[in-house]
Amino acid sequence: MKTATDFRAFSQAGRELAHWHLNYETVAIHPGPKIDTGKVPRAVLTDADYRVTKMKFAKTRDADGKSVNDKSTVIYNDRITIRDIPLEAYDYVVNGKPALEWVMERQAVTTDKDSGIVNDANLWATETMGNATYPLELFLRVITVSLETRTVVSNLPNLKID
Fold first, then answer.
1. 52 DSSP assignment
2. What phi and psi, each to the nearest 5 degrees, are found at residue 152?
3. How far is 81 from 87, CA to CA, in rounded Å?
4. How far apart are CA 100 and CA 84, in angstroms?
5. CA-CA distances (angstroms) from residue 16 to 27, 57, 126, 139?
6. What pLDDT, on the 0 to 100 scale, is given for residue 7?
7. How does DSSP classify residue 158?
8. How far apart are CA 108 and CA 75, in angstroms?
9. pLDDT per position as a tens digit, 47-69
10. Backbone angles phi, psi at 6, to 5 degrees
C-alpha cells in the first residue's frame, strides 16, 4: 500500500469482512434464491420436512448432452429444492472449495467408517440451535456472506507492491 487512502480502504474492508464472517449465522437471508416445496405450501411444512441427509446439485445437460451439475439449483431433500442461486456466490472459496459447497458437505448425515459415529446436522439444528430449519437457513445465509465478500474484495484498490 502506497497511501493512507489505500490503507484506510483495506482497513475498512477488513472490518466489513469481519462483520460478514463472524455473523454468518445471523445475517439476512439472501432474497434471490427461491425455495421450491412443490405442491405443499412452505407454511405447512413440519420440522421433519426440513430434515437433510445430503444436499446435491440438480443436473442439466451441456452442449454435448453430457450430464453436469447445475449449481443454480440445489436439491436440499425430497421436499425442498433451492432455485435461482446466484452463480457468483460460488466465487467465495475457502481452502480451495466454495463456501456453499462446504455447507452442503457439512450440513448432512454422515457416518465415520472407522468409528461408526454418526454426525447428524439435523440433531445439531434441533438440539443445539432449537431450529429444524437451521441447515437450510445456513445455506441461504452463506449465499449472502459469499456475495458480500465478493463485493468487498472486488472494491479493494489495486495493491501496488514494488
1. -
2. -60, -50
3. 16
4. 14
5. 12, 30, 30, 20
6. 86
7. P
8. 12
9. 999 999 999 999 999 999 999 99
10. -65, -45
